[in-house]
Amino acid sequence: MYDVSYFYNMLRMYSPTAKQICEIRWNFVKECKPRVVLDFGSGCGFFKAFAPKGVEVDTYDLMEVPQTGIQHETYDLITFWDVLEHCESFEFLKAILSRTDWAAVTVPIKPDNVKWDDYKHYKPLEHIHHFQYESLAALFKTFGFKCVIAGQPECPPREMIGSFLFRRAV
Which of 20, 55, 155, 165 could pair covalently with 149 via S-S, beta carbons 3.0-4.6 A apart? Predict the structure, then answer.
């Protein structure tokens, strides 16, 4: 499913809006003033491609796509853009989140007034988990993080996507 052809398809389909979405994301995480970032589940690498000047972004993905890999012991920020809904288990988060005090996440969020049959992100073979704000905050709380910003700044251009910025609880 997520192979090299998927990578090139994503580039063709989403390059026109990728810059706009990345600008929204970079603005969303500005509070943590990131200088060294790990884009975990980086896919095509758009977040790195549109990084602000002076910000170093490592990219890591399970797909066989061009990536830097995890180069640093610690990061100012680790991002999970459209990643967690695809993960069978969240055990990997403990080791990854130990490298940072900040994490940014986007996941589909089903509005209460939308039926499952009408929910565009209901994809049983692709999206293993479905989140609400509360369930995602509870997941990150188990790893010692609290949500400091939650909203839907990517909507538009996207629909029903929640964005979250977490900080390690002190």
Answer: 165
DSSP 131: B
Distances (CA, A) of 122 to 2, 41, 43, 47: 18, 20, 20, 25
**Peptide bond between residue 157 and the one before it cis (omega within 30 degrees of 0):** yes
Burial class for 96, CB neighbours closer than 10 Å (0-12, 13-18, 19+): middle
Residue 93: give the domain boundaries: 4-168
**Angstrom distance (rounded) from CA 37 to CA 118:** 36
CATH number, domain containing residue 123: 3.40.50.150
Containing 150, the helix (H) or strand (E) segment is strand 145-151
Per the CB < 8 A criterion, the answer to whether 18 and 45 are in contact is no
Name the band, by pLDDT with cuts 50, 70 and 90, for residue 49.
confident
- The amino acid occupying position 40 is F
* pLDDT score recorded for residue 8: 58
Question: Tell me, what's the pLDDT at 13?
Answer: 67
Please count the CA atoms within 13 angstroms of the CA of 26 that sit on its side-chain side: 20
Report how many domains make up the chain.
Answer: 1
Distance of alpha carbon 169 from alpha carbon 101, whole angstroms: 8
